[in-house]
Amino acid sequence: MRRCRNRAVLPLARVVRVVCALPLLPLALLAPAPVPARAATPPFTIVVLPDTQIATQNHPEYFDAQTQWIADNRTAHNIRFVIHVGDIVEWPARTSDWERARRAMDRLDGKVPYTVAVGNHDMDAWSRGGYDAVAADRGTARFNTYFPYGVFSSMSTFGGSYPTNASDNAFHRFSAGGIDWLVLTLKYNPTDAELAWAANVVATNPMSQVVVDTHDFTDGTTRSTAGQRIWTTVAGRFANVSMVISGHYTNQGYRADAGADGNVVHQVMADYQTYSEPAAAENSYLRLMRFNPDAGTVDVRTYSPYFNTYKTGVHNQFTIYGVRRGVRAAVP
């Protein structure tokens, strides 16, 4: 032990008097500064318009009410984007269908950015022979007449299209909830060339969370032939794909699968169309998808603006878990 010399020993009472004589410092100077709480990230909404074909044909007032409600409530619900899953018209050779669809979507122009997938009913050949005809002729002249490239390219969210200067396939980018999002819209039953373009878009935007919008992907539970091709080449291939939105089949459903990188891809489909006039109100429903970035959840609700009613039940009112950037979440 090393001893210290020449050091006086003070009586205990004197030590106490010396310590007590020191000036007292404010507690605020002694304690570490508190770490400010992180501000909560505000939720935001993406609205999905399922197949509007029968509303367009028989009850255009339902379609008008949907888009007017979106425009009127864009601030209250923090609506950042609108996704139409295709079949915007019933009969592509009928001009009145296109005029009604255009009039409904006009309500969003300059208010909320949107995308429209090309469904099988939106392809020119559908009027000439249904599925066989559109398999042989994938022309979309009428769709591009009423929803031309300029409508989408003028939006601040627009990123590009394929073919160039056409509206058949496109992608949009926007930021919401502290996340960069990319909505990739694919034409009905996309060709190999269209899928190659889509894969390149996703690959060259690795920091964006991708939502794929396409007409035919699942029937509610099982992926279709077209859906499986999209899954293999795009949706299930890249780590930054979060979700696929689709319609086409008169049904509702949800499934989640792990992508090639272990990321969870949430697949949501809904289509309420019916030709039955007694049940015509089914054609009036849209989907509200409310994203809560802090919780990593999406609350899905099914709402009719025209009738001001909600659908309930597990396929129409549910919560998706594990939707967040950079997190490999468990399947809910």
CATH fold annotation: Purple Acid Phosphatase, chain A, domain 2
Output the number of helix runs: 10
Strands, total number = 14
Given as residue ranges, the uncertain stretches (5+ residues, pLDDT < 50) are 1-22, 326-332
CATH architecture designation: 4-Layer Sandwich
Oligomer: single chain
Describe the secondary structure blueprint for this structure.
Elements: H1 12-20, H2 27-30, E1 44-49, H3 53-58, H4 60-72, E2 79-84, H5 95-106, E3 114-116, H6 126-136, H7 141-146, H8 149-153, E4 158-162, E5 169-176, E6 179-186, H9 192-203, E7 209-214, H10 225-235, E8 241-246, E9 252-258, E10 264-270, E11 286-292, E12 297-304, E13 309-311, E14 318-321
Parallel strand pairs: 1-2, 2-3, 6-7, 7-8, 8-10
Antiparallel strand pairs: 1-11, 4-5, 5-6, 9-10, 11-12, 12-13, 12-14
Helix pairs in contact: 4-5
Can you tell me about this structure?
The chain is an alpha/beta fold and 332 residues long. The chain has one domain (44-321): Purple Acid Phosphatase, chain A, domain 2 (4-Layer Sandwich), CATH 3.60.21. 27% of the residues lie in helices and 25% in strands. It has ten helices and 14 strands. Strands 1, 2, 3, 11, 12, 13 and 14 form a seven-stranded mixed beta sheet that branches. A seven-stranded mixed beta sheet has the order 4-5-6-7-8-10-9. Helix 4 packs parallel to helix 5.
In short:
This protein has 332 residues and is an alpha/beta fold. The protein has helices at residues 12-20, 27-30, 53-58, 60-72, 95-106, 126-136, 141-146, 149-153, 192-203, 225-235; strands spanning 44-49, 79-84, 114-116, 158-162, 169-176, 179-186, 209-214, 241-246, 252-258, 264-270, 286-292, 297-304, 309-311, 318-321.
